[in-house]
């Protein structure tokens, strides 16, 4: 099938390939209420054709820009493909997009048509819609009777009353493929943005087809695989995963945050693509569940995890499957090999016991999970080690909206844990210093990338385009990283996220926030301290777990939440405990310790403090809590 994929030059080619190759196979599984529905590849093709035909009657044609405001649902991918077939440019966004951001996107992209997921969502943005006199048509996916004689609003049920398809219509539809060229614009994706208003990333058919061509082999994707989908379909990470599934005849089951754990056990997926926070949630649920059963069970479980981690570490050391940034002299290498051989033999019987016991976690995740793709943010090292210890193969991937998204990944052929693997095929990647000089392995610099997956630029934004590309055509990612001597990428931070203390030390907040996340009462943490003498942390606590921790650790049984918010004594005790994870012996510098902490009373919310892939919008958080930060770090 990889040879067939290589012949696909447009997303329309992907649709027709899937229809010809797997007509009777199940493509999608989704719920409407309590009813579970299955859609074959043939039915999917027909649904796309019908919607394309209906859109055409409402004057959607090549070059039209169409806002698609919707959460995950089967109709999303049908709409996406129907717009693509007409040469229209989709401008997708999540249904929880704030009104101000939505107004910016609609006006900046100069959208011609609007599609809303539900009638309630349409009503929510009615004031904005009323101000857009140039809009030619509005469509509602889940609405009832909405159209009136002089109106331009239609529900999908009204659009699709006639579901008949003639042979001539099929022939005409298939002929549309000839009109779509590789460099035609497929979509405008407005980045969620951890800084400022989102920018419109232009992605072409060529960009997307690069991913369809090179990524399936990285995870050995076949038609027997079943994906469990949980991320927003409009986001490029999930969107590409769905395209990959279509390219090999796999099946996608649409899940939700609420049903994800149950769906893992019910559908027993072989593939899952999600973000680090979902894995953090699974980790926390396992820990909390064992603790509830018995603190001794939790201690035994964590002991077995520790044994598995140490055993796997020494096996990988002997196989040279750990990240190395410089060569080790032969004498030191020989001594370290002897040490690892001794440890492997000593730990082996305990590892066998651990592997059998830890298999219960894999069973909870369905028992068939071959690959768990983690992208959309850095996976903390403790979490990668934990997942590896319980026997889950993580494919830690690195990408950006601007790269459709694939840049690098630790695919199944890359055994070097703790890295993002090598660049994907047909991708050039380099690490450069501030002067633009290419750096050797082990030295940190900016990650730059060039390849067919890279965007031609940002829509109507000459200044951003000038800053984003080098003179020789490499895209400046803004990420900091370094290469191992065997060619794998390790990210070390984000240039725009680096905190610089008044003393001049540069600090990567992600590593420290990951370490703080090990504490059960830390729901979220944001490091602050730009231009200050020392660091502070804004912590979103789980209050029940915080009370439990204070009782177990210090014997403090005061359950007054007001006291927990305001008590300097409690803050100081917690700060000292947090700093125990940030000691030099654990890889941190003395200036990376916390000087002060503050508990926040509100959790971070999607669309406000968090992007749709659950990354923290630091500028929003720092602006919202600037008074707290000012008092914290006087």
Question: What key phrases describe this protein's structure?
Answer:
20% strand; 634 residues; 5-stranded parallel beta sheet; 8-stranded mixed beta sheet; 23 helices; 41% helix; alpha/beta
Poorly predicted regions: none
Question: From the alpha-carbon coordinates, what is the Rg to the nearest angstrom?
Answer: 26 Å
Taken from the alpha-carbon principal axes, the silhouette is: globular
The total count of strands amounts to 25
Sheet with most strands: 8 strands, mixed
State the distance separating the first and last CA atoms.
Answer: 62 Å
Structural class call reads: alpha/beta
Oligomer: single chain
Helical amount: 40-55%
Architecture overview:
The protein has 634 residues and is α/β, with parallel strands linked by helices. 41% of the residues lie in helices and 20% in strands. An eight-stranded mixed β-sheet has the order 2-1-11-10-12-13-14-15, with helices on both faces. A five-stranded parallel β-sheet has the order 4-3-5-6-7, with helices on both faces. It has a four-stranded antiparallel β-sheet with strand order 16-17-19-20. A hairpin with a 2-residue loop joins strand 1 and strand 2. Helix 2 (11-21) crosses helix 3 and helix 3 (41-57) packs across helix 4. The radius of gyration is 26 Å and the shape is globular. The termini are far apart. 41% of the residues are buried. The mean pLDDT is 90.
């Amino acid at each position: 099938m990889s040879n067939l994929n290589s012949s696909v030059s447009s997303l329309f080619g992907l649709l027709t390939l899937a229809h010809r190759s797997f007509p009777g196979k199940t493509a999608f599984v989704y719920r409407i209420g309590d009813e579970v529905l299955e859609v074959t590849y043939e039915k999917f093709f027909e649904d796309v054709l019908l919607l394309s035909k209906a859109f055409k009657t409402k004057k959607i044609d090549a070059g039209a820009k169409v806002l698609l405001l919707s959460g995950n649902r089967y109709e999303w991918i049908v709409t996406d493909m129907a717009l693509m077939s007409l040469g229209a440019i989709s401008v997708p966004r999540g249904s929880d997009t704030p009104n101000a951001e939505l107004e910016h996107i609609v006006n900046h992209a100069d959208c011609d048509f609007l599609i809303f997921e539900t009638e309630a969502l349409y009503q929510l943005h009615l004031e904005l819609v009323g101000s857009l006199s140039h809009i030619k048509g509005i469509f509602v996916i889940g609405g009832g009777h909405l159209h009136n004689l002089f109106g331009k609003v239609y529900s999908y049920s009204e659009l699709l009353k006639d579901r008949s398809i003639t042979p001539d219509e099929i022939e005409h539809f298939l002929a549309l493929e000839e009109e779509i060229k590789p460099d035609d614009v497929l979509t405008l994706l407005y980045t969620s943005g951890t800084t400022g208003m989102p920018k419109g990333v232009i992605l072409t058919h060529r960009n997307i087809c690069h991913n369809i061509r090179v990524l399936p082999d990285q995870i050995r994707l076949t038609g027997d695989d079943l994906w469990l989908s949980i991320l927003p379909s409009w986001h490029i990470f999930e969107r590409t995963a769905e395209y990959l599934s279509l390219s090999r005849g796999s099946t996608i089951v649409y899940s939700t945050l609420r049903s994800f754990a149950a769906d893992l056990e019910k559908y027993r997926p072989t593939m899952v693509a999600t973000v680090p926070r979902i894995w953090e949630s699974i980790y926390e649920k396992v820990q909390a569940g064992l603790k509830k059963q018995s603190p001794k069970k939790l201690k035994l479980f964590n002991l077995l995890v520790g044994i598995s981690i140490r055993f796997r570490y020494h096996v990988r050391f002997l196989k040279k499957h750990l990240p190395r940034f410089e060569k080790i002299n032969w004498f030191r290498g020989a001594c370290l090999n002897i040490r690892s051989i001794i440890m492997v033999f000593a730990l082996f019987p305990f590892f066998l016991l651990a592997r059998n016991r830890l298999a219960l976690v894999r069973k909870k995740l369905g028992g068939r999970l071959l690959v768990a793709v983690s992208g959309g943010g850095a996976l903390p090292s403790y979490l990668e080690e934990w997942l590896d210890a319980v026997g889950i193969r993580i494919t830690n991937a690195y990408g950006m909206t601007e790269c459709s998204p694939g840049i690098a990944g630790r695919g199944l052929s890359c055994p070097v844990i703790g890295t993002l693997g090598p660049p994907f095929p047909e991708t050039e990647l380099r690490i450069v210093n501030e002067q633009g000089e290419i750096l050797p392995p082990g030295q940190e610099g900016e990650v730059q990338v060039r390849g067919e997956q890279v965007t031609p630029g940002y829509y109507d934004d000459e200044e951003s385009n000038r800053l984003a590309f080098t003179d020789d055509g490499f895209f400046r990612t803004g990420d900091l990283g370094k290469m191992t001597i065997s060619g794998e990428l390790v990210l070390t931070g984000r240039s725009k996220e680096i905190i610089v203390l008044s003393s001049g030390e540069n600090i990567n907040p992600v590593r420290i926030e990951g370490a703080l996340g090990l504490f059960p009462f830390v729901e979220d943490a944001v490091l602050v301290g730009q231009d200050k003498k020392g660091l502070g942390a804004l912590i979103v606590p789980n209050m029940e777990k915080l009370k439990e921790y204070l009782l177990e650790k210090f014997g403090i049984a005061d359950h007054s939440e007001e006291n927990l918010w305001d008590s300097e004594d409690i803050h100081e005790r917690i700060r000292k405990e947090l700093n125990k994870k940030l000691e030099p012996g654990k890889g941190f510098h003395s200036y990376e310790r916390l000087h002060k902490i503050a508990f926040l009373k509100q959790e971070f919310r999607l669309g406000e403090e968090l992007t749709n892939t659950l990354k923290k919008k630091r500028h929003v958080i720092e602006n919202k809590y600037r008074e707290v930060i000012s008092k914290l770090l006087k």
